Amino acid sequence: MISLAAVRRSMSAFALAALVGTALAGPAQAEDGPLPVTVTGPDSVNLSLHPDPDGSDEPQIQLGLQAPGEAVPDDNGVIWPIHNGAYTVTVDASSLAGVAAVDFSRLGGSQGCTVEGLVATCTGYEIYAGSDYNDLGGIRLDVTDESAAGDLGTIQITAAGEGLAFTGHTVDVLVGGPELQMKQLTEPAGFQAGDTFQAPLGFRNVGGLGGQGVVLRVSGSRGLSFPSSFGNCWYDPREADDLLGRSTALCIFDSEFAGEAAYGLSAPFPVATADFALYDNLSYSFSAVPAEQARELLAEGDYQAGQGPALDLVPLPDADPAGYARWAETDFPTTNTFDLDLTGERLRAHKGETVSVDVGFANHGPAWLALLRSGGEPISFWVDLPPGTTATTVPEDCRPGWEGSEGDYFCFIGTPILEDASRTFTFGLRVDEVIKNATGRAFFAYTMPNEGNPANDSGEIVLNPTRRG
Asked: Strands (DSSP E) along 344-393, which ranges?
């Protein structure tokens, strides 16, 4: 049996690799001698004792080869290998006997590999520069009835071939290591833009093993900010001109946590909302990372240290497992409104004359319209021309309608739309026939959710009015 201290030391490497990833690069090629090639793959796998709720059977381990240089096509667009000659890759998972089931079926591509027990032997012939064209395939691992929390094993990958100098690779496998699920969040009843959400952040370790050291990462979109300054948190605000950027807070806890146990913060995590906030996105995650390694993450952003009291982790013995999931995010506030406004013009014109007609768009707020969940897709409105006219100039973001469409022209407005946004769409209209009070309009085809004033969602375009508008 392995000691708990040994498992915890192992978990340091597992957790950091899971959080920040591992970059593998091949060595530079010498002027003479064999071609250096490195086997690439993940350093570690934390194999969950809990079945994937989505039923995925995708390999957790993807292997490949890294050779010197970069694959570049020739003048005909052909990418040539830098080595031709047989080589053999051996994948030895013997130490996983009784630890996990190993599926080699997706190794070796279409030609597959020869498998004897927990050892697979794969053959190849061509090696390309770089790594993009040197895929070796994947390995799927699953727990069995014999698997238990704390079981450890390795997969050793070696390779050999004439004219080649391989650097092998080892994948460490741990069963039932820390596996943190996040407490789900909901918008408080009666919450309004401008309020501060006292977020009850927490996690539940569904893994069989505990550990020491946890990192909390909190992220919020433009309408959210983190006003408190905790002593063990670092803050990286969003750049003011980056409308889709996010503010981030990173908190480090040098605390022990147990397997199959839940924890919360010693104080709620305040999230302030701006007056313009609407369906802004808050997400957070806890990751098992030792404190000394977690500080390396601060190099990822322009973090400023907090100056206030430190947060602690507090056990939650009565936590309901149903309230936790792998991911935690919520969109709020949900009750704010915007005021989209379309306006037209009233003009006089003679037959044969071409006039410029401005269709105005504005958002009078108080909320912005970001459509973050849909990737910032545009919104649209329609324009019907006054009778007796023909469009000679059409704005760049407008297109002719089609048979059976809502109007004559279909116009787009990109999102996010700020709380004080305005824009003009100018049409050139030729008057083919003078008609008194010839009336067209700009209009939204439907009232958008959170529209606070539908009455100004359309505007008239009137040529040769007989009365003052």
From this structure: 346-347, 354-363, 379-384, 389-393
